[in-house]
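Bumping with the actual sequence this time:
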Amino acid sequence: MKLSGRNQLPGEIVEIKKGDVVSEVVIQVGEYQIAGVITTTSVENMDLAVGDRVTALIKATEVSFIK
């Protein structure tokens, strides 16, 4: 599989908050957690579960930094 997104962060799912239409998936990436919202259908089709290793693919037109 070829992807155009370069910001790929591998981690482990630590929490899934399932909703009727969308679900929040939280992954642990090193000392940080990243949360993303995907459809509940995608959670079920991918058979995602706490403890699974996944990669967060972040593709954005803008990134902000704070120092």
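The tokens above came from a reply further down the thread. Helices lie at 40-45.
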